Hints:
97 residues; mainly beta; 6 strands
Amino acid sequence: xxxxxxxTFLLALDVTPDGTARIITHEPxxxxxxEPHTDCTIEVRLQPAAYDLPAGHRPALVVNGxxxxxxxxxxxxxxxxxxxxADEPSFLDLPLG
Length: 97
């Protein structure tokens, strides 16, 4: 990840077939105090949730420099770039059960 600002947050969503979204986890993961424009590796463990994803819905992970719902967590216009390499690929693990 390479944030252009010092803060980034991540939040899990349920995206419905019509494109609207519902929050799955009500505790965003905040990445604070990072050096802007510098690559960093993070491991995120979102708040556990017992949530049934209805047929036709899809999970989404929001990565943003701003969190207006919970608090202002970033700089206006900041960006976060997600990258990976062949040696260390990015992945999302969704335990089902």
